[in-house]
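Field reference: sequence -> structure
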Amino acid sequence: MRQIEIYDTTLRDGAQTEDISFSVEDKLRITEKLDELGVHYIEGGWPGSNPRDMEYFKKVRKLGLENSKIVAFGSTHSTKHKADDDANIKALLDSRSRIITIFGKTWDFHVKEALKISYDENIDIIHNSVAYLKKNAGKVFFDAEHFFDGYKHNPQFALKCLLAAQDAGADCLILCDTNGGTLPADVKNIINDIVKDVHTPLGIHAHNDSECAVANSIIAVEGGASHVQGTINGLGERCGNANLCSVIPNLQVKREMSCITAEQLRRLRDVSRFVNEIANLRHFKRQPFVGDSAFAHKAGIHVSAVRKRPETYEHIRPDLVGNSRRVLISDLAGRSSILRKAEEFGIHLDPDSPQLQDIVSTLKNLENEGFQFEAAEASFELLMRKALGLHKRFFDLIGFRIIVEKRREGEDPISEATIMVKVGGRVEHTAATGNGPVNAIDNALRKALDKFYPELKEVSLHDYKVRVLTAGKGTSARVRVLIESGDEEKRWGTVGVSENIIEASYQALVDSIEYKLLKEEG
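Structure field:
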């Protein structure tokens, strides 16, 4: 079976999506999910371009990834410096990443109009940058920027740029459709032209401005490329990049090429939804392979046929990509997913038990209210344990009050929370301040519980996100709060939903604390 390298650039190209800004913690969390998915390379960012990416490269070394290798991204050296004296090249090496990707100009139009240098100077820059990095790093990938546009305009020059990187020792030459305007037939013809001159492994980096990024990636692989770059859910600048959630199953299931393992492929939907949650984006229901509607059937003829032979109206088995068949208005949807989750959580759940249907019904009702559990699995495990009678109450809330006071213009408001809880037969009444109402209630709750559960001192809040769920209602809209907490060993996500942002936050905070105490009990 032919092996295809999967190179994910969600953290770099995907972060250039309009309305998206990943924090360092976001990037680290996504990195762990991509590693579980089994992608071969994760492009972490551009070292030296901003403090956030530099911090990411420092922290990512502590994750202990099992499947993926981290890649640092940058450019060839500038026209004003040599490779060994270039700040960008130095930052790439300072990232301590053993794999480096650099892009260089291969379209003569850019060389003349943007760089304003000669063709020979540009070729020297490519060669010298790759050669210098190759001496100091493990692998060097060369992104041939605007390659397809460049080849259509001046094929001799574009090819010389590729050969310069090849001669300098590049480990892979990635053909980039940077403007996203190339059509599949042109990709096929151009790759057929160059394979007789290029002996280094080829890759493809396609943008989606003509809605052809996935098709172009598949065409390139069929033409000989063995390395595919893209992003989860097709995130990226302008119209996005090639969507790996479509590229991977198309190559693996339909072309029988090896991208990731079958077990990892079954995580594809979960990873897709996880990235959307972290990016604070709504899930696209009709996204191929991983969307809610990808295997949903409503028409009577379709439903009847699928129940007899699924292949009548399904192009692949949904479970191959971690999705499930949905017969709309049926009470059967979701059972297999619940059973899979129970197994992951170490909970025995009989497929024929009435509790299973109770969980499915509860899940559907909560999702209708706005709950989403893809990035809040701790909340979902607690929900499941409550439904099965396996949940232990660690404390009861008697009540809380939050006061936010702003004394004068130009000064920050003061937030104070008072809370009363009952643990066993004891009542604890305490108060705490915070840098906002959510932080205040978090501090007060922890303060009340610390003497009973000192292990809560290990828990810290890593992230807090709010999403408006009911458009058009202004400040009275229902909101969903997603919280990421963690200790020294792991991190977990919890969720709360309410018209009151404090109540939604409290729900997520309580789940976070109860999950920690549950795991401490083993």
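Note: The chain has 18 helices and 16 strands.
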